[in-house]
C-alpha cells in the first residue's frame, strides 16, 4: 500500500441494513484488521470524506439521507456499496419498503458482496475504490488545466 | 418557549452506528424535550413471512438484526417448534444456549466498545473490540459465520459441534474471560468513565417499571427481571441469578453489562459441563405449524416478544416481533429530559439502541 499518496477518509452510513455489515465494517477499523495503519480514517463528517461506504438497501426515509450525504461530499469521491442488501436489496428485496440497492439513488463504484460481507472483502473493496479515487483526482486536475488554458 | 433551540441529533452521527433521529429542544445547554423519529431502517420484514415459507423464514428472522442474530433465529425456531409440537434433542438445546450466551457476550463487548468511544475513550474502544474479535473467532469456528450464524433451523441445528471442538472452546473461553477481566476493571474503576456516567441519565425503578423498560436498562434500575428465568432453552436447568444494580444511572447500566458478561461465561461453562450427547436435529418433513404462539426471550438488550400465527399452510399468517429497543425508547426520552447536551450521546448509547431491530 505504499503507493497511497493521501490518507483517504471514509464516511459510513447504515441505510436500511440489518447491522450485520455495519459491525463488520466497524471491525475493519479495530485492532485485528485495523485499516487505520493504511491511513484510512473513519470520519463522521461528510465534508471531510473521500469514500462513502454504504451498507444496506434504501427505503423512502434513508433515500433522502443517502442523497444528502453524497451531495455534501466534496469531489472527487467514490461510493462503495457493502453487502447483499446494498447491492440489490438482498434478502429484503421483496419487502414492501425496500427500493433495492444503493445504485437506485446514487452512482456506485465498487460493489462488495456477502451477507454479511467479510472484513477482508470490505478492505479489498476500499482498496479498489482508492484506484478510482486517484483516477478521478487526476482527471479533475487535467480538466482544470484545460480550463486554465 | 422563546429561548429554545432545536438541534437535530442523527440520523447520521459519529457515535451512532445506526440511524435514529432525535430532535433535541434545548434551553441553553439543557435538553427540555427529545422527540425521536424513526423509519430509516424500516424494511417491512414481518410481511416477508408471506413470501417465504416457514422454513426459509428462519433465515430472514436471523437478519432482523445482525448483532443479536442468533437469538432472533432461535426465538423464531422455538416458536415454530412449539406450534408443530416438535421436541428438539437436548444437545441442540444446549448448543443453542451456548451460542445464545456467546452472542450476548459479543453484543455486550460491542456495546462496551461503542460506549467507551462515546465517552471519548478511544483505546478502551479498541481493546473491547480486540477481545470481541477473539470471540468472533470462536463463533466462526463453531458455526461458520461471523455475525450471521445461520446454524439454527426449525427442528434443531444445521450443524453439530464435535466434543473435541467443544473442549477447545472451553479453553478459549477461559482465555477470553481473562482478557476481558483486564478491561472490566477499567469500566468499573476508571475515574474518566465514572465522571461521565455516574449520576447521568437516572431512571428510577418506578419510572422504569411504568415506562416499560426492559433488559439491562431495567436491571440497572434495581428491578430483577430477566426473561431467561422463564427457563426456555436450557436456562431452567442451570444455576444463575439475574444481575441487578440499584442506582439507575448510566454507570449502573454499564456495570450490569460488565457483570452479565461474566455471568454468561459462567453459564457457558455450566452448559459445557452438562453437554448431552446425541443428535442435534429432528426431521420436520411434512409437518406444518398451526395455531397461535406468543413467547418471550431475553436478548442482550432485553426482552423480545414474538407472535406467530399459522393456519397450517406453507406460509405463516402473521409474524410479529416486539423488540427490546422499541420498549426502551420511552424510558430514553424520559432520561433525556433535563440532561446536558454533551451527555446526550452517552445516554442514548446506554440503552444500547438497536434500530434495525426496532424498525425491522
Ligand atoms: S447484506 Fe446481510 S448482513 Fe448485510 S445488512 Fe444485509 S441482511 Fe444484514
Detailed description of the structure:
The complex is a heterodimer of chains A (149) and B (360). By secondary structure, chain A is α/β, with parallel strands linked by helices. Chain A contains four helices and five strands. Chain A has helices at residues 20-29, 60-72, 83-88, 119-148, and strands at residues 9-14, 41-43, 51-55, 78-82, 110-112. Chain A has a five-stranded parallel sheet with strand order 2-1-3-4-5. In chain A, helix 1 crosses helix 4 (119-148). The longest helix of chain A is centred in the C-terminal third of the chain and has 30 residues, at 119-148. By secondary structure, chain B is of the alpha+beta class. In chain B, 48% of the residues lie in helices and 14% in strands. Chain B contains twelve helices and eight strands. In chain B, the strands form three sheets. In chain B, strands 1-2-3 form a three-stranded antiparallel sheet. In chain B, a hairpin with a 6-residue loop joins strand 7 (302-311) and strand 8. The relative contact order of chain B is 0.19. The chains are: A alpha/beta (149), B alpha+beta (360). The A-B interface holds A 12-24, 26-27, 30-32, 43-46, 56-57, 59-62, 65, 69, 91-92, 94-98, 115-116, 118 and B 11-14, 17-19, 39-45, 47-48, 51, 59-60, 63-67, 69, 110, 113, 125-127, 129-130, 132-133, 136, 145-148, 354, 356. The structure holds iron/sulfur cluster. Iron/sulfur cluster (SF4) sits between chains A (17-18, 20-21, 55-56, 83-85, 90-91, 115-116) and B (63, 66, 148).
Key phrases:
heterodimer, A: 149 residues, alpha/beta, Rossmann fold, 5-stranded parallel β-sheet, 4 helices, B: 360 residues, alpha+beta, Cytochrome-c3 Hydrogenase, chain B, 3-stranded antiparallel β-sheet, 8 strands, binds iron/sulfur cluster
**Annotation, overall tally of beta strands of chain A:** 5
How many separate helices of chain B?
12
Mean pLDDT of chain A: 82
Order of adjacent strands in the largest pleated sheet of chain B: 1-2-3
Report the structural category of chain B: alpha+beta
Can you count the helices of chain A?
A: 4
Report the count of strand segments of chain B.
8
So what's the oligomer here? heterodimer
Radius of gyration of chain A: 15 Å
Strand content of chain A: 5-15%
Protein chains sharing the most extensive interface: A-B, 40 and 41 residues
| First-last Cα distance of chain A | 35 Å
Percent in helix of chain A: 25-40%
Anisotropy-based shape of chain A: globular
Amino acid at each position: 500500500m505504499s503507493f497511497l499518496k493521501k490518507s483517504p477518509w471514509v464516511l459510513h452510513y447504515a441505510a436500511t441494513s440489518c447491522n450485520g455489515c455495519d459491525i463488520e465494517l466497524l471491525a475493519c477499523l479495530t485492532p485485528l484488521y485495523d485499516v487505520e495503519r493504511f491511513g484510512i480514517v473513519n470520519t463522521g463528517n461528510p465534508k471531510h470524506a473521500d469514500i462513502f461506504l454504504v451498507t444496506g438497501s434504501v427505503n423512502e426515509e434513508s433515500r433522502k439521507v443517502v442523497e444528502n450525504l453524497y451531495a455534501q461530499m466534496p469531489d472527487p469521491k467514490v461510493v462503495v456499496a457493502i453487502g447483499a442488501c446494498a447491492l440489490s436489496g438482498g434478502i429484503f428485496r421483496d419487502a414492501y419498503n425496500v427500493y433495492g440497492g444503493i445504485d437506485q439513488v446514487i452512482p456506485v463504484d465498487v460493489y462488495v458482496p456477502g451477507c454479511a460481507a467479510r472484513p477482508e472483502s470490505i478492505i479489498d473493496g476500499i482498496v479498489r475504490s482508492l484506484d478510482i479515487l486517484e483516477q478521478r483526482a487526476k482527471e479533475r486536475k487535467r480538466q482544470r488545466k484545460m480550463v486554465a488554458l | 418557549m422563546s429561548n429554545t433551540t432545536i438541534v437535530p441529533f442523527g440520523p447520521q452521527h459519529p457515535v451512532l452506528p445506526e440511524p435514529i433521529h432525535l430532535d433535541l429542544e434545548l434551553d441553553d445547554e439543557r435538553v427540555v424535550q427529545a422527540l425521536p423519529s424513526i423509519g430509516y431502517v424500516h424494511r417491512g420484514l414481518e410481511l416477508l413471512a408471506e413470501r417465504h415459507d416457514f422454513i426459509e423464514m428462519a433465515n430472514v428472522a436471523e437478519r432482523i438484526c445482525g448483532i443479536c442474530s442468533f437469538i432472533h433465529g432461535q426465538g423464531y425456531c422455538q416458536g415454530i417448534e412449539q406450534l408443530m409440537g416438535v421436541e428438539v434433542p437436548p444437545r441442540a438445546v444446549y448448543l443453542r444456549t451456548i451460542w445464545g450466551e456467546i452472542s450476548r457476550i459479543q453484543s455486550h463487548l460491542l456495546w462496551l466498545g461503542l460506549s467507551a468511544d462515546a465517552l471519548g475513550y478511544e483505546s478502551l474502544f479498541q481493546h473491547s473490540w480486540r477481545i470481541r474479535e477473539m470471540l468472533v473467532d470462536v463463533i466462526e469456528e463453531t458455526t461458520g459465520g461471523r455475525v450471521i450464524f445461520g446454524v439454527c433451523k426449525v427442528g434443531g441445528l444445521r450443524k453439530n459441534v464435535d466434543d473435541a471442538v467443544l473442549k477447545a472452546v472451553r479453553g478459549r473461553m477461559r482465555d477470553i474471560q481473562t482478557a476481558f477481566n483486564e478491561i472490566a476493571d477499567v469500566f468499573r474503576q476508571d475515574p474518566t468513565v465514572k465522571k461521565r456516567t455516574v449520576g447521568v441519565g437516572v431512571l428510577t425503578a418506578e419510572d422504569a417499571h411504568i415506562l416499560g423498560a426492559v433488559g439491562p436498562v431495567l436491571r440497572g434500575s434495581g428491578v430483577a427481571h430477566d426473561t431467561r428465568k422463564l427457563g426456555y432453552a436450557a436456562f431452567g436447568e442451570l444455576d444463575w441469578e439475574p444481575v441487578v444494580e440499584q442506582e439507575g444511572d448510566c454507570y449502573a447500566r454499564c456495570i450490569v453489562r460488565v457483570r452479565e458478561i461474566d455471568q454468561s461465561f459462567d453459564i457457558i461453562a455450566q452448559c459445557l459441563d452438562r453437554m448431552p450427547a446425541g443428535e442435534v436435529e429432528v426431521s420436520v418433513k411434512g409437518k406444518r405449524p398451526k395455531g397461535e404462539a406468543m413467547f418471550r426471550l431475553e436478548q442482550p438488550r432485553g426482552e423480545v416478544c414474538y407472535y406467530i400465527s399459522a393456519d397450517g399452510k406453507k406460509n405463516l399468517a402473521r409474524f410479529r416481533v416486539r423488540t427490546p429497543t422499541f420498549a426502551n425508547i420511552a424510558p430514553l426520552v424520559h432520561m433525556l429530559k433535563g440532561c446536558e447536551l454533551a451527555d446526550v450521546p452517552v445516554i442514548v448509547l446506554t440503552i444500547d439502541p438497536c434500530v434495525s431491530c426496532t424498525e425491522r
